[in-house]
Amino acid sequence: MDHHMRGVEPDHVTTLRERKGRRTFRLQVAERALFAKEIPLPIWRKRLGALLGIQHTLVGFDHGSAEVDNTLTLNARTGQGLDVLCVGERMSAGLPTSQVLIQPWLEGWIGLGDAFDVADEHERHSLLYRMEALLKAMHDARICHLDINTDNLMVSTQDSETPLRAIDCAKMETKVTQPALSTALQIGKMLRELYGRDEADFTTRYTQARAMQRRIAGETGINEATDTLLALSLRYRLSKNLSRRKLVTTPFVNIDGPALEKRVRASKKNADMPAIVWNQDHPAMADEAPVYSSS
């Protein structure tokens, strides 16, 4: 990898993807394939965070040192992450300017979204069951991925019983104080990504999400706050308009659904979605009014 980053192109290093300054690679070392990720550190505060191994607003949450710590924590608490083989750093003036993370290669694994697209009804049920099991493991471990999506949950194509694995843990929060809220955010986003945001399908998805929430978090883990977050995350993209990290680590829960919806609808990505019908400060239930409006 060092030769590759210096401009030499060894035959055993294959570039897989370049996105937002980050590159991923497949390495062939003897008979073994490995995965590598280059993580640039363009600003000094992230370089300091990476050097000290600190995750904080001031020094960033998504440098390579954070990803190593989060990846190891996830795997230790749930067994559904990946190992870390090594991390290397390129230094300048005593600070890392980039880091390279090397992990095992998941041969025969694909993203959940790709698996779901080609699955029949029975296979989709199995995938949802395994996704729910992973979300429950995260709930019980008080972990919120914060970058969960259909590409970051991996599915074995060789064994339909193998548990899913979560990857790309740089933004992960491992000290969740509100696991029920964390679970609601993750359920809503995953169902939205798997099924889309079709208005005609929302009542079904909302019912499905609440059932998942109850199975994962129990009766005490489903309430007005979780109902609100399930509805919002099913309908809207929240990451740019809501501090989910702050929400899942707060000691007290005080969620104003209509106010949060107003904030997230300010985004161009959400403005075209129909507004939610609210009963005071939580989504209206089926016996109160239609859960979602059609206007």
Automatic annotation (TrEMBL):
Q: Give the domain of life.
A: Bacteria
InterPro entries attached here?
Answer: Kinase-like_dom_sf
Query: In its UniProt entry, what is this protein called?
Result: Protein kinase domain-containing protein
What's the source species for this entry?
A: Kushneria marisflavi
